[in-house]
Prior knowledge:
- The chain is mostly helical and 207 residues long.
- Helix content is 55%, strand content 5%.
- It has helices spanning 2-15, 26-38, 66-76, 92-107, 112-141, 153-157, 161-174, 184-194; strands spanning 20-21, 57-58, 143-145, 148-150.
- It starts with a helix and ends in a 13-residue tail after the last helix.
Amino acid sequence: RRVRRAFLLETAKETSAIAIATGHTQDDQAETILMRLARGAGPTALLAMTPSGPGPFVKPLLGLERAALRTWLRKKRFPFRDDPSNKSQAFDRNRVRRLVVPTLAKAVNPAAARHLVEAAGRLREDAACLDALAQERFESIATQRADVLLVPAPALAALPHALAARVALMARVAAGCDPRGSSSRQIDAVVALASADPGSSRDLAGR
């Protein structure tokens, strides 16, 4: 995946392309949601793939089911390729695709994948509202002194956890940490530190 993305970014730069469209479908979105749920992801991570980003990447087919897309391609006689690695159950996504999603469709609801994606869409709206509120809180309580970011413990501890966790993540990002390396366990450790005894400390990944 890293090699593929690097190749696409390099090619886009060489050709002055303003966007890179990928073929992710509604089914891919449902698989991503299920994998993140199984890994204990927080609410923001459960929102899965967005129609645009990161960078020049766009996903115009997220609203289409994989089977419907393939039917349309065959009807129009447009050629397409299957990645041979999709058949291997050595990868998490393939196991979810071949074992979990069909079981949900058969045992729970034939439209389970679509409903998962729709639920994620509703979560996205709620998360956007909470993110905006958290950004306001972060900007009102955080200060920068030289190369040190200060977030008063009492102010962080007074926030509802949904906002405190987001403020803690924003603080880590502002301090130079990669947001992708901030697990919910690390975020919870920062929030818990705000209510800990004076002098308490935590060592977290990302320095």
